Sequence to fold (1392 residues):
Amino acid sequence: MEARIEVGILGATGMVGQHFIKFLQGHPWFDLKWLGASDRSAGKRYSDACTWHLGVAPEAISAMTVEESKPGNAPRLLFSAMDASVATDIERAFAQAGHVVVSNSKNHRMERDVPLLIPEINPDHLKLIPGQQRARGWKGQIATNPNCATISLCMGLAPLRAFGITKIIVTTLQAISGAGYPGVPSMDINANVIPYIGGEEEKMEQETQKILGDFRGDHIDPLAARVSAHCNRVPVVDGHTVTVSVEFSSKPSLADVRNAFDRFTSVPQQRKLPSAPATPIIYMPQQDRPQPRKDAERERGMAAFVGRLRPCPALDYKFVALTHNTIRGAAGAAVLNAELMHSEGMLD
Amino acid sequence: MEARIEVGILGATGMVGQHFIKFLQGHPWFDLKWLGASDRSAGKRYSDACTWHLGVAPEAISAMTVEESKPGNAPRLLFSAMDASVATDIERAFAQAGHVVVSNSKNHRMERDVPLLIPEINPDHLKLIPGQQRARGWKGQIATNPNCATISLCMGLAPLRAFGITKIIVTTLQAISGAGYPGVPSMDINANVIPYIGGEEEKMEQETQKILGDFRGDHIDPLAARVSAHCNRVPVVDGHTVTVSVEFSSKPSLADVRNAFDRFTSVPQQRKLPSAPATPIIYMPQQDRPQPRKDAERERGMAAFVGRLRPCPALDYKFVALTHNTIRGAAGAAVLNAELMHSEGMLD
Amino acid sequence: MEARIEVGILGATGMVGQHFIKFLQGHPWFDLKWLGASDRSAGKRYSDACTWHLGVAPEAISAMTVEESKPGNAPRLLFSAMDASVATDIERAFAQAGHVVVSNSKNHRMERDVPLLIPEINPDHLKLIPGQQRARGWKGQIATNPNCATISLCMGLAPLRAFGITKIIVTTLQAISGAGYPGVPSMDINANVIPYIGGEEEKMEQETQKILGDFRGDHIDPLAARVSAHCNRVPVVDGHTVTVSVEFSSKPSLADVRNAFDRFTSVPQQRKLPSAPATPIIYMPQQDRPQPRKDAERERGMAAFVGRLRPCPALDYKFVALTHNTIRGAAGAAVLNAELMHSEGMLD
Amino acid sequence: MEARIEVGILGATGMVGQHFIKFLQGHPWFDLKWLGASDRSAGKRYSDACTWHLGVAPEAISAMTVEESKPGNAPRLLFSAMDASVATDIERAFAQAGHVVVSNSKNHRMERDVPLLIPEINPDHLKLIPGQQRARGWKGQIATNPNCATISLCMGLAPLRAFGITKIIVTTLQAISGAGYPGVPSMDINANVIPYIGGEEEKMEQETQKILGDFRGDHIDPLAARVSAHCNRVPVVDGHTVTVSVEFSSKPSLADVRNAFDRFTSVPQQRKLPSAPATPIIYMPQQDRPQPRKDAERERGMAAFVGRLRPCPALDYKFVALTHNTIRGAAGAAVLNAELMHSEGMLD
Fold:
């Protein structure tokens, strides 16, 4: 048995940082050895530096000392859960110092030479990294995963790329855990819908085009599809549901589309990456599924659930997709990205 | 002061029947004098015939005796809240006997000679009635209001008809009260989304085309727009929120569309019908409104609230609309229809 | 018609301040003319100084200018909605300057010479005021209302005082609106119970003894009953439900206790104070009522709803009580206090 | 390795039956081989005989054929999840035919010769069985587990028996899953509290006295404590929270009581029964725990979580307890009972 790779977390005390800690417990390849946070937390015992929100904190982690978010004694591979207000400079500083930064933060996602990865969809976008290293003059790497709602949408679209996607209209019904902690006040969301999430629609529209786009040597040609998002918060704890209408340049039959969902598999499955779900897209034939409270946590939160495929009178087809927003949509997404990078030899 | 018009309710013991009773309390024109229900309930005191679900039942109503749903001693004007399983024959029997049946049931909505009315949108569809009377050989009348989610959508679209609507994609976030009682089990909807409501999408797609269609002598030419609906149940008590993307044949500017919302008024407002909201469409400029728990009950539940108008990258514009599903979307809809009919002299 | 009395609000921008504003709209005696807040807000238009959380803000109020919370140009009668961190000094400063401060803040509630009032229960506690003025050397007055959960409990107990209350065990199921805004994070309370509210149990135990105590010239002799509270937050928007077990020194029959609930009326009803509910305690005979979402808002949120009276195998009797926490439990409580004071000539 | 014991489920298609199926998956001792239900279901494939409500049904179970609920080809050990309307006669018929019926139904719980078991509390109550067999003239056995809310209470009280419990006042905040399916309509419980659950308070009061009572040869002497319950439904999915005030005949210190919680262990732990939690009572020192959504599922739903121990001004001490109502409070309770019986050699 190979030695595990030591890893650290940037922004370990926040909600996403906690999700990383939880997801990495018992990971066969990655050994969590380093927790970075703001200067305010540095030097403290982890359990004193933050309030744990995910049940009961792992004891070994609670006893660790939080470090300053500066290169130095950190492991080479770092997961970044940093707040957008500070992520840009710190992530770059670590990459400059030779670290591999696998980030969930939005800051670098749309930069020309930074992969915005979903391993089942665009593993080849990792080829941006050598150019990134040349252009930035660093030996490190920055790779990112998309916004949590974008992942729900793109996982649902992944099997359909061959049909030539030309138009997408998506409405999200997003869980409160997506807003972190304290996040959404209960007075705003109890028995209510909030039809707005700041910046989310723009992210979904732009990120989707990049994710589904084509690698062109030193950049990604975005998919030339028109993407429109309506983002809503609903009183659900975990799991972003999306309703999707899509138009194709080819005119596949309903059976063609259904087959594409049923047969979809990809690189993470072929390589048996540890966090990859056996079946990345689980099509549910029941007329009222998937549902976030009943389905999102299945398959360790890493699969996408799709259902209700039917013709769309306005575009071509419509369906519902669901992923667990803090697992497949955040911590698990980044860890799967790192697993893909390791399988490519990029962490050697 | 004119004498009030005596009215009755068909299906008075069900949830929609109760909403009619509540809405008609203190009505200036209509005097509720007759409660019809199934044979099982007939002869009982109203309070013994059903469990009241809307707070505390009006005392005068509780003491009334429930009648069989057969023509005879019923008032001429009847609001129908009957279950779809029985409404077809009973509503026809009453029309045959000369009654004016203003129905919330779905049964007759799509029939060629039956108006599917929203008074702010298609008051002229009432002109179908003379032909209905000739074709059916009855002196009575049947007029209907749309499905509750359809009303949310169509109220939002009402001001935009002049721009030439060609394509509509709508996603609903519907309240649990829309499913009646006992309706949706809490085990299904607590902290969850159900991405399916039986028959709802078909109703929204078909009814919208008829409502926005044109009166052609003996029938309605449906609007030649492509309509696609995604219907979802969310854990909200009252108020159906819809996200709408729409395409126009003319290419109005954003300001044109916004002005259309702000300036919209119609026949019910001009005639000051008692249940008509002063402003039928209330455009909310806040970026996160309308919201069902905060807005649906305003204006006695009869206005439509619209917000978040913005360009749609896939069609032309997108926005959010909200109406109170059991008031503007059901009981209040039918009562406003009857008020419109009275203002046309059709109840004389 | 008498001229209305000008009033102001201390702490007008907070959540409780907003509840005061909403409750005072259209008040027949009190005319809201002055809004005080922190220096940070002073000088701003009210609508710019805060985010309104209660539907849509009254236009006239939105346009008012917020004042510094210093005596000077403020009306004589002030409702205080100030945060506990600042209320002590500011309320005293206003009383020193001759103002009548009717406060919802907890700061002065338990002071020896300050009335802790529920007008239906202890209107005679207002007699503390002359002594307060002598002891403090001010011409002003400070009167307070209890904590919102205490009011639910004490309203339920009010009719039972004559039976000699000796022991009370109460468990609360409290609404999220009681925690203000942003208040309870949705991640903590969605589909959950939080069995703790900081400081609440101590308040309920102590305040109840004072409220039900006896005026003794210059102080209140607390009721010599043993009071134990278990406080819980539940995912309800408005309305604090309490389950109560109570022991009496006399041994009333079940019918005696029920009669006490049914017949209870008091000074606010006799004097027809504008905010007094016609029936202060509404006993509901249904086996599953009262319920917060269905009952709390009835009677303009000012009545207490009681139900499920039955023998308690451990003490003597048990029952359920409910009041609207932000109306009867906060803004409405203070306004009713001021109405009582006006009916006593204390505002002249 | 020993062969597993074949077991069956009576009432396999209902909600509790489904919980049994789920809980028994992978059980090291018990092998689920037989599913009994009503005549209506008999002969059908299990997946056709019911709608599965707990995520996704195990495939092997879905393919099994449902049997009539009559002795014959059923395994000797049967878990009963039957509805109370039919359980009495059917359970007796199976016991008469020599089966061991380990029942979650309420029907036989309070019968003089039937054990009402919680293995951590009263394993010696199994000694009722020989007398039961003599008195009933059967070779089979009937053993029962308590009502789900009673289990929350009694697990919390288990460590405190030595202090001499004389008085208990408990208020429950019960999850919706306790009402089965369809169970509580969402219109009744969404953002609401229902302060009543039919028959629940009586069950808690009587069952608690029997569970904590003493075995006396052919019957149980109930604990001579006065028990009073207030039962409420709250919008929580799983986990019954109870607030408890308790009086003791001895006067233990707070430290004594806390130690009793911390040190509690019992027969199921000593015997390492497969479903026994390692620590049956987990005392949580955080001031706001336990909480149902965050804690109930920990330890596979089989532990009781206790917190907030503090003096009670009215009785002696008060605290909060929580157990998972469908696992520790139903299916898991019965399975643990059967494990205890097996460890006693009663299944040989």
